[in-house]
Each structure stands twice: as C-alpha cells, then as structure tokens.
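Subject: Sanity check before I submit

Could someone independently write out the structure tokens for this chain? I want to compare against mine line by line before I put it in a report. The sequence has 220 residues.
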Amino acid sequence: MKTNALLFLTAGTKRARFKDPLSSTSGSVMFKAVGQTLFSTGLQNPKHTAADKQGQDYEVRTYHATKWVSTTLSGMELDAALSKGFRRLFSYIQGNNKAKVKVEMTAPVSCRVEPGAGPACESQFTVSFFVPEEHQENPPEPGEAEVFIESRKEFTAYVRTYGGFSNDNMKRQELLKLLESLKRDGAPYVEHPYYVCGYDSPFKLTNRRNEVWVLRKEQE
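---
Independent answer below. Compare away.
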C-alpha cells in the first residue's frame, strides 16, 4: 500500500514530462471482483452501476452511497490544490488519524471543483480518497482539522475517460468536450461542481486512466 500511495504522491513531478503513446483507453486492463471493478492499478474502486444506455463518447454511472476521506482547499490552480490535498490525505492513510491505523490506498483520487465567480476569483477544490470497504462503516477519525470524512449520497455522473499525463489544460479541454457531448444529446446536467479523477501513478507510462465527471441533473 505504501508504495502505491507514494507513486500517486509524486504526480506532477519530473515524471509528468512523459507522454502516453497510447492515449486511448481501449487497451486499459479491467477485471471484475466481487461487487466492484478494479482497474489496472489493482486498487479498490467505489462501487457503481452502469446505465444500460451510454453516450457515444461518455459513460453514465450511478455511484452507490459511500464514505470518502476529504480535504478542501481554495486557489487558482487545480493541480497545485490537488497536490497539496493529496499530501494531507496521504498523511491520514499512513496513520495520522485518531485510531493510529494505516488505511489502504484506493482509486480514483477525485477532486470536486467549485469554480470561482470570475476569472480572477479563487475556486474551491475538495480532494478525496475513497474509504476502503473494510473501513466504510467506521472510518478512522482524522487527526487534522483540515481532513474530514465525507458521506456521499448516491449520485449519477456522466463520465469521460482519457489517457496520458493529465494537467490543468487537459482537464479543462476534456471537461469542455464532455459538456459539448451532453448538449448534443440533450442530457440534463448540473453545470457545477464537476469532478476530475486520476487512477494511476506517474510511473505508469502507458494506458493511463483519467476521468472528468459531470453530475446528472435529476428531473423534478
């Protein structure tokens, strides 16, 4: 677990200069476990149900109610907030919690983005790790005030998957592509917040998996 977490921790460092020669996700390794899907990282993922009808260039997933360990930051740059937030959460899973227990690394690392009111305004970023199944009922209480346990209700998201070493610009471009697809299909969606997610360490050079999530707007 420690090795996998350390690999995530180095995201945005020198390794990020590599480009993924297989930016398509068609070759991603995916296999089924009991009640959940594990991607090529081999880490636990939150359970979800895929809709019968999918978009031509995005998925529709309903995520079950789950607990996540999270931290919220404000700033102008998504990747900088993601890096700082990751370090806080990494400290938590390494035992900086009131139970002093180590918690397994999971995937994805998600970041909820609440854009600022204007181009010169700070956005709010909530970085989260999915709490593994063995701790879902009673997650260790965080040892720092900036870290908290988040109970996410069931939600449905439109998901666009892309490869390569992601950065702020790629995240924005992939989000815009997803929004264009949803407008094309007349799919009801919530403009914000939105989520960006990563599944792989920077040492994985091919078949990388990144996602952007836009929440489905529930019909009244």
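---
OP: Matches mine. For the report I'm noting this point. The CA atoms of residues 97 and 143 lie 4 Å apart.
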